[in-house]
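dumping this here before i forget
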Amino acid sequence: MVTTPESEMPTVWMIDAGGDKRGLITYTKVTAIARFCEVGTWRVECQLTPQHVRAAAAGWRIIIDDVSGMYGGHVKEAEIVQSGRTRTLTLSGEDDMMWLRCSVAWPTPASGVGSQTVAYDIRTGVASTIIRQYVDVNRGPSSPHVARRLPGLTLAADPVLGDTVTGRARFTNLLELLQGLAVTGGVGFRMVPTIGSGYTFEVYEPPSVTGPARFGLALGNVKSVRWRLTAPEATWMAGGGRGEETARAFVSVTNIFEDDDWGRREDFFDYRSASSTDSNAELLQGTSRRLDEQASTGLVAIEPIDNARLRYGIDYQLGSEVLVEVYGEGDADIYVYAIIREAELTASRSNSGPVRTLTPRVGDIGATATSKQTLAIRDALARIGNLEHR
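structure:
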């Protein structure tokens, strides 16, 4: 086992409910998983001491300060185990992205919930601008409802990034709304914690490393590669907008390349809430996004090895598109473009010495937030939610 210099091990801070630092945790093991445009998780195991047990109080936060970034958030669960000479405390929770999941985007953010006279909060513009606006007016400093403002939340300056998107909010889950806009707009977003009570919402453009830099066993920069090919659910999609029967608006989108390779596979997307006054632009955008979700997937999982050419957190990060060489012999080359979905940090201390590992993951295999089953469940819940919110 290769040990890690103590100077490269993460530090774990305890932050009280008022945002003040209350000391460090001397941990035995730390695990933190950051996820691209999704809620991350963390877990800290340590000895049960009067110092450590204070972090089990309501409202306290844990911040894991590592060279790859900061992880952590409010303590969600605390467990004490005492048996013989064993006295341990385990603290676990989610990162600050969970506040977006615990929020809804109102049709009229400036009005009270009983005075929602507009059907939808419709916003069109550059992706980073629209995503930032939805956060700001619903849970950010610009919300007119003091109770809705997230304590400690600040918004980074708008970087003006991404393609043009249209958002439509009607008591929509805020995280799911932002995820759809980020996919369409080609950007990412995250909550960046500070060692205190605050955190910053940022929209960013992940660096792409799909050019000459790539990952593969033959290149010596991955420990393992796992790949699985899944056929598309659809190559042609009809989208239905507003109206009924013969008065209803319809559009269609075709994935030309997959239609040629896999044969025509048809499906229908019900998007009744799309605008009826924009020449079906929003309907077309939504139908295209739905078809993308139904495309074939070359699912791949890799365990990268940092080297001088490719280092996580410096050359690539969460959301970066990377090129993976799955197999390369003769004419049977298999290459996959994939997104860095997760990064798992693990640090432990034992009699053998400290050990720190950081494992980025790409694609669906091994990553927990991008499977087709998850997309199917989200789609079903979204359709039910659209009916409930009318």
